[in-house]
Amino acid sequence: MNQRRNRDARPPRRIGLMSEFGRFAPGRVFLAILAGALSGCLYALAIPLILTAVRGPDAGLAFAGEEVRMVLGFEVSNARLAAFFAVFCVCIMITRAAASILVARVSMDLSADLRDRLCQRIVQSGYPQLEALGQAKLTVAVTDDVRRIIGGAEVMPQLLINGVMLVGIFGFLWYINTQVFLFVLGAVVFGVVTFHIPLLFANRHFHRARQLYDTLEKAVRGLVLGIKELQLDRNKRDGYFGQILQPCAKELLVAEKRAMTIMLGANSYGDLLFFFAIGAIAFVFVNYHEISSTDLLAVVMVLLYITGPIAIILNTLPRMSMASVSLRKIEEILGKLPEQMEAERPLTRREWHAISFAGIGYQHRSDKAHDGFTVGPLDFSIRKGEVTFIVGGNGSGKSTLCKMMSLHYPTTTGRILFDDQVVDADCIDDYRQDIATVFSDFYLFDRLLSPIDDVKLEAANRYLRELAIDHKVQIKDGLFSTTDLSDGQRKRLALVVSFVDDKELYLLDEWAADQDPVFKRVFYTEILRDLKAQGKAVVVVSHDDRYFHVADQLLIMEDGNIVEKRYRDAVPHVAGAQAVDATLA
Question: Is residue 341 one of the residues assigned to a domain?
Fold first, then answer.
């Protein structure tokens, strides 16, 4: 338990857009590349085909009157070439659509797969790593980052089609005039180099904006969860907006504006690059090199045709840049979430009667200035059919101890034994199946996630009646009719879920804190008694000293250590407790 086996931790696999697509659907990706390349070739051949039709053997279509035919009520010159051109256009449409559709469908499948793998990695990772990363980073990674990666992947067919088109067009330009080809090639090289200089600055701002998204997500979450407190105090509300929310939002806006401004300015420069080249050829190049008017017209037409693919390529670069930044963020998160298991092992039912905690301890993460808070070493046992209370002030280590007992925190010292079996990587998941918890920061799902049959459904409805929330919540097809309840009612519903799960160890952290006096009495005098009678091991974190006499074992914590243990015969029945119970009854 205190040491993870090295074979269970694998180094994070570096991922890229093309590698992910190739891994996920190699056949479809190959077809998409093939269709995109074919579409690009056909686009490139469109220019010589049109020039052939315009020039013709008789110097133009105006002299092709003998070949005029009526097609669908229209006069069509050079009908054979026109028919070929129509088929040619249909082929371009089909290949381009095929490439885009294939990649779009693969990207949607990959999106679902990537989210699933991220969620699986989160589930398999240790709870301390998740706490260190924080909810905001994980949420943004699973939602926004995956969406941006797929958005970048979706433009790859356009890059491929237009890239192949440019290669073909430059080949045709070389065929027309070698000197013009070299001049235009030099202009392209110059344009690419000068375009990438501002692109580097834009990527820095995109990276900064991505970092600020995590902070903004955390700030918005604080606004939503803390709305009750903020509405009650205008100074707090103004302070939250002025010190937390608005500075982050403004900084994010500035970073995004700078990135997009630089990127769009560079795109405009790239769009006009070939117009500059056309002007240079038309007004300067012709003075130094011999070129016919026919070839000059063809060159100008080719360069005008090139501006479209160049604009498409440049417009896709911002999405590719953002996808690259998001991909690096996901790689970073995956690197901090090592898998605990190569594959889920089959569960083994393990019988036990007592849990021994032998010198267990846990140290929280430390920063450069301070060592992390340490709990332990602690020695105690809990047994089935007994109720154990854990008490202590704030910061005494109760919550940390509970997370060690629930096997969420790996112990840094000592051992946990279920009877004589030491908890290790081979059996930890088996023993986790026997634990039910209601932490103080519990999450209430909107349904019963475990398999449910008529017996369990009947039991759940009975628990709803006994806890007096059946008038608020009904269960249909495993779904709760509502979870919009008060804090006390939500805890009661969470307790119902744990009863339906029917575990062996119940760990209830401050469950009675949000209950009214009547339900406190029901909890301490009836619910705990019933769990004990069923042979369950029960651990309760509590401050209700008038009910300490219910415990078979009382553990008193202070500064991360158990300073006192009391057992049933030594736990005093607080004076007046019987009178209080009688009054409530």
Answer: no
Closest C-alpha among 339, 358, 346 to residue 429: 346
DSSP state of 450: S
Residue 344 domain-assigned (yes or no): no
Query: Is there a contact between 252 and 209 (Cβ–Cβ < 8 Å)?
Result: yes
Taking the CB of residue 283, how many other CB atoms lie within 10 A of it?
A: 9
Say yes or no: 477 and 563 in one domain.
yes
Contact 310, 303 (CB under 8 A): no
Write out pLDDT tens, residues 525-577. Answer: 888 888 999 899 999 998 888 888 888 999 998 888 888 888 876 555 544 33
pLDDT of residue 106: 77
CATH number reported for the structural domain that contains residue 530 in this entry:
3.40.50.300
The domain containing residue 256 runs over which residues? 6-336
pLDDT recorded at residue 78: 67
Distance between CA atoms of 134 and 418, rounded to whole angstroms?
Answer: 32
Strands 505-509 and 435-438, sheet pairing = parallel
309 and 393 fall within a common domain: no
Query: Does one domain contain both 382 and 313?
Result: no
* CB-based burial, 149-175: b 16+ in 10 Å, e otherwise: bbbbbbbbbbbbbbbbbbebbbebbee
Residue with tokens 């995590």: 214
What is the value of pTM for the model shown?
A: 0.64
SS3 of 2-29: CCCCHHHCCCCCCCCHHHHHHHHCHHHH
Nearest Cα to Cα of residue 496 among 467, 518, 523: 467
